[in-house]
Design brief:
The protein has 86 residues and is mainly beta. The chain has one domain: PRC-barrel domain (SH3 type barrels). The chain has a six-stranded mixed β-sheet with strand order 4-3-2-1-6-5. A hairpin with a 5-residue loop joins strand 3 and strand 4. The radius of gyration is 13 Å and the shape is globular. 19% of the residues are buried.
């Protein structure tokens, strides 16, 4: 069950979506979202709601989210970040 997940243990663990989509690694848990990041040079960050987590086996956090859904709904574009507007 999702309520049984120790979210501190999920930090720095692999993040996967539907059809084994690679979302990189879990970076943080904030405001009901799981912050994941993928890439080495060109990093992509996603803020996926905790409610979309399907399971966590201690090694991989699995989301009930497709690659396309992650890119369309949960992509955190640094160009539109509030911090960049000041």
């Amino acid at each position: 069950m999702i309520s049984d997940i120790d979210w501190n243990d999920a930090i720095n663990k692999e993040a996967r979506g539907l059809f084994d989509a690679d979302f990189g690694e879990v970076q943080d848990i904030s405001n009901g979202n799981v912050i994941v990041e993928r890439g080495i040079v060109e990093k992509e960050k996603f803020c996926i709601p905790q409610g979309k987590v399907e399971s966590f086996d201690g090694y991989v956090v699995r989301f009930n989210v497709s690659e396309q859904e992650a890119e369309n709904k949960y992509y955190d574009d640094p160009a539109t970040s509030i911090e960049d507007t000041f």
